[in-house]
Write a structure and sequence with these properties.
CATH superfamily: Vaccinia Virus protein VP39
Structural class: alpha/beta
Shape: globular
Number of helices: 9
Largest sheet: 7 strands, mixed
Helix content: 40-55%
Radius of gyration: 17 Å
Number of domains: 1
CATH architecture: 3-Layer(aba) Sandwich
Distance between the termini: 38 Å
CATH topology: Rossmann fold
Strand content: 15-25%
Number of strands: 7
Length: 231
Amino acid sequence: MFTSIAKRYDLNNRLHSMWRDQAWRRRVVRMAGIRAQDDVLDMACGTGDLTEMLACASPQSVLGMDFTEAMLEIAEEKSAAAKQRAGRTNPIFRHGDAMAIDLPDSSIDVLTIAFGIRNVSDPVGAVAEFARVVRPGGRLLVLEFSTPRWWLPRIVNAMYSRHIMPMTATLLSGDRSRAYHYLPRSVATFADPKRLAAMVAAHGFDVQQQVPMTMGICTVTQAIRCEKGEF
């Protein structure tokens, strides 16, 4: 499904978020507090938008992983075009599964996942993997769509995401897999921020804050990996 929409994925993201998606990702990078000695993993990196922003924060290393090869091909093309940018860490891209991350225990300082956790078949298993690879004191940041609390934005967002966006995004992408009909349903059925926070806390993270953005259309969950025995 994601292979079928890869070529127009970025364009659809920009248009249908009204260019807010990049601002949301920049907020994640700021909240991550990247340091020069950090090893960073951007899980479910897609076409690499967030990976590139993390790379521009100049950590020690940046790894982007995704399950869809077609997305990774675009991410690598974008990264190659940005290699000459001063002060940027060149990211590495690899095929990867959030439920079985091919990295050693406690090898990552910052793990980000943007609009990906709801598409994992076993989110609880993925969070357990995040806890395994993130070092004690390391940071986890999950950016995901959410349902606005205010009634008017909630109604407008529901109409837009369930009826308008699937139609226009499908036309723009030429997609036949009905990916843009699945995506709004995945948002509606995924855990709300409160339950996501509970899931993260149950796997050894101390949830620091959850920040809603653009009237609650999406939320960033920020957590710190506890020392062993603290949870």
